[in-house]
Amino acid sequence: MARTTSDIVIDAPAHQVMAVIADFEAYPEWATGMKEVRPLAEGSDGRPETVSFVLDAAPIRDSYVLRYVWHGDHEVSWSLAEPATILRSMDGSYVLEDADGATRVTYQLAVDVSIPLLGMLKRKAEKVIIDTALRGLKTRVEAA
């Protein structure tokens, strides 16, 4: 599955950026289309391991559960725990790197949906999702 990638530099250290990423219950406040986000299970590091989402981002409206793998404050990856109504698969990650006192956040995403979409349209939708999420994350972290 091809992945779409984009990045942004956030004026904050990696641990602050990762704290916002891990605060799932606050996603509806800054992540476009997220109507409800609820951690279901916690990993041994205290961060959420499985998280339930209710997404309403036309044309996609779906409920799904993601499984997360955390690598300290430098990377988190996720995948769809089981197929949802529209989403058949979703694999993504945030990779955080030091950028002269700030943090470069690279977001990778690959989504497969049950509705037929041309590959070009799917990549464009992934790019919009990624860029919107990165801008929201930057605004949220830098406002804190």
Write the layout of secondary structure elements.
Blueprint: E1 4-10, H1 14-22, H2 27-30, E2 34-42, E3 48-57, E4 60-71, E5 75-80, E6 87-99, E7 102-113, H3 119-143
Antiparallel strand pairs: 1-7, 2-3, 3-4, 4-5, 5-6, 6-7
Helix pairs in contact: 1-3
Provide an overview of this structure.
- It is a single chain.
- Helices cover 26% and strands 48% of the residues.
- The protein has helices at residues 14-22, 27-30, 119-143, and strands at 4-10, 34-42, 48-57, 60-71, 75-80, 87-99, 102-113.
- A 7-stranded antiparallel sheet has the order 1-7-6-5-4-3-2.
- It has 3 helices and 7 strands; from the N terminus they run E-H-H-E-E-E-E-E-E-H.
- With 144 residues, the protein is an alpha+beta fold.
- It has one domain (4-143): Alpha-D-Glucose-1,6-Bisphosphate, Chain A, domain 4, CATH 3.30.530.
- The mean pLDDT is 89.
